[in-house]
Amino acid sequence: MKDKLYLMIPGPTPVPPAVTAAMSRPIIGHRSAEFAALIERVNEKLKKVFQTKNDVFVLASSGTGGMEAAVANVVNPGDKVITLNTGKFGERFGELARKYGAEVDEIKFVWGSSIDLQVVEEKLKADPTIKAVFATHNETSTGVVNDIKGLGNLVDQHRAVLVVDAISSMGGMDIRTDEWKVDIMVSGSQKAMMLPPGLAFVSVSPKAWNVIEQNKSPKYYFDLLKARKSLGKNNTPYTSPVSLYYGLEAALDMILDEGLENVFERHRLLAKATRAAVMGLGLELLPPLEYASDTVTAVKCPENVDVNNLRRTLLEKYRVMVAGGQAELKGKIFRIAHMGYASKADVLLTIGALEMALNECGYKAELGAGVREAQLVFLGERD
Ligand SMILES: Cc1ncc(COP(=O)(O)O)c(C=O)c1O
Fold first, then answer.
1. Which of 39, 52, 86, 262 has the most neighbouring CB atoms within 10 Å?
2. Ligand 1 centroid to residue 105 C-alpha, Å
3. 138 vs 204: CA distance, rounded Å
């Protein structure tokens, strides 16, 4: 028998048994009254998790489909937009906007740091024709969380709409879509939302609808006006992934039953313990503590350790899968996710395996030193 796999990567993440069970229910017609009632319930529950009064559209695509829907419905060829690049996923918004013909002012921040609001403010003041600002809430590639509240307050004073990717934080972190004045919030299923890959979620504000209604970019599957018309009848324009909807309702029920504040607190605690543990092993975090993510921890790999070897050892010997770095961070960092269906025991187990793997890869980690730090956090003995 192969040992159990511990999926500690930032998506896809483990799916709770209740969600898997819900997805095994018999398929029903996607145009039936029963399915319409499910769509209506799911929309209401999604609004609670998104902390928005606006509708949240469910798209049958991975998260990038949600990002593309936002771009395709907002950007007209020649529009000026700002994209904020704090890592691989912020960079993606720039790529998408260029594909749709935007004149993109891509502001790149050092990967591992967060957005500098002053820079954005200056750009917006200098050019009142900017149509949209695209940002990432939780930059999975660097483990950085950006100040979307601050950004929302800033963008709100201008005509630009604010589009935010919360693909790896929604369902795990406190994201106040309306209060933070985010016009289009995008998320995805396979991370803190505890579902298999395959769904994207997109909320749209009245300010964004004004822009979308004027949009001329070619689009078909991701036309949000069509999606709005359908959702008005508790329907979707095309065949819905029925089983994923069953799972979505089960996952949303789990989140809402636990209580949003408890979910956020659990993620805060797991992140705090993971950070304390890796620092207890003498390792360095990529981002500074003040904007380290609650759903994924990015750790600099010690100089004398080959990241690929470390990850391979963790996977082959202990069946613990962690992620590596992407693009310019490849070979430099590894990332431990603690999002969605994640518990204290997952962190303790991962850190225990990491201590062994580090030693096997040439880094002298004191056995138990990381686990102990995590335990102290869980016991409430670390501020
Ligand atoms: C912040 C962020 N944005 C976008 C994506 C892309 O999502 P997907 O791979 O589901 O298309 C990811 C996936 O890792 C992500 O973490």
1. 86
2. 22
3. 19
